[in-house]
């Protein structure tokens, strides 16, 4: 039987650097990178105009993503998912995906302060003006109101990264 791949996924507030870190980790691990933003843009172009739109459309792609990722992991590929694991429910989805297959996982928790995240969002608005509509301080506080820091009790293999 082939050795299973390992799944890497991220937790961190908006602006913590999840996408940047996921790209670097995929390169370092020679892993397949799967980006939620890319999947949503490809399947639902110009259809995400609010946080609720994002939540609903993200939920719709999850069954397809799960099957795809499990197939990749079953072949022995390492997979880095640039999808948020910012609530217990989101993390439970990742953990179930791994448990069903019996593969290893690593949850990388980018534990940055609100100040650090807001500074990185300000920089991102400059570098990616197309995101300026959503990368606001108001949106940061709205999205952060749902954030739940991971705990060991959830059963995830957590690697915590402090600071920037």
From TrEMBL:
The keyword Cell division applies. Gene3D superfamilies: P-loop containing nucleotide triphosphate hydrolases. Keywords: Cell cycle, Cell division. GO terms for biological process: cell division. InterPro entries: P-loop_NTPase (IPR027417). This is Cell division protein ZipA. It comes from Agarivorans gilvus.
């Amino acid at each position: 039987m082939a050795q299973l791949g390992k799944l890497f996924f991220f937790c961190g507030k908006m602006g913590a650097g999840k996408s940047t870190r996921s790209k670097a980790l995929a390169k370092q691990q020679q892993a397949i990178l799967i980006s939620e933003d890319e999947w949503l843009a490809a399947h639902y172009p110009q259809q995400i105009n609010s946080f609720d739109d994002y939540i609903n459309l993200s939920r719709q792609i999850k069954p397809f993503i799960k099957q795809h990722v499990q197939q990749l992991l079953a072949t022995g590929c390492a997979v880095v998912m640039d999808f948020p694991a910012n609530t217990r429910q989101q993390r439970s989805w990742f953990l179930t995906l791994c448990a069903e297959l019996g593969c290893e996982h690593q949850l990388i928790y980018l534990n940055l302060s609100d100040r650090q995240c807001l500074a990185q969002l300000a920089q991102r608005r400059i570098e990616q003006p197309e995101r300026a509509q959503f990368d606001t301080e108001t949106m940061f506080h709205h999205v952060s109101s749902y954030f739940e820091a991971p705990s060991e009790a959830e059963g995830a293999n957590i690697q915590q990264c402090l600071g920037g």
